[in-house]
Write a structure and sequence with these properties.
Length: about 140
């Protein structure tokens, strides 16, 4: 079932960021998560992307892409926001959240389209003891 979510806080994958409540585009699964893979895709006026998150005995893997459809700042028709996937994890101690790599074309050297393939548990600030994925949502992050 797909729905609309509003996330109130994000742990940014790219440093600390001041965030406004982001707009979320889609969500999967609604019940308690189990090991395995979750795939999601979304298209909104601000961006689009696809994500696959796999959790198993061999570790955690996040692959996919995001694209910012409103690059640039407010004076050039953009929205000054980055586009990323917001992920809520099931862990041995409850839930945790993180974001995927972000498309931030309004920053110098930033890209409007970003592909990613990584293990989020390898990051110092990433989720630990992951047992599954509760939900994913395409979101904007104001930085």
């Amino acid at each position: 079932m797909r729905g609309i979510l509003r996330a109130t806080a994000l742990t940014a994958a790219i440093g600390a960021a001041a965030l406004l409540p982001p707009t979320a585009a889609s969500a999967t699964p609604g019940e308690n998560a189990a090991p395995g893979c979750v795939t999601d895709s979304g298209t909104e006026d601000f961006g689009r992307g696809e994500i696959t998150v796999c959790v198993g005995d061999d570790g955690v893997r996040v692959t996919g892409h995001v694209e910012d459809l409103k690059p640039g700042g407010p004076f050039t028709g953009g929205d000054s926001a980055c586009v990323a996937w917001y992920i809520t994890w099931e862990t041995a101690s409850g839930t945790a959240s993180s974001t995927s790599s972000m498309a931030c074309p309004h920053f110098p050297g930033g890209e409007a389209y970003v592909e990613f393939d990584y293990d989020p548990t390898e990051s110092e600030h990433g989720p630990k003891n992951v047992t599954g994925v509760r939900e994913t949502s395409l979101t904007t992050i104001f930085m």
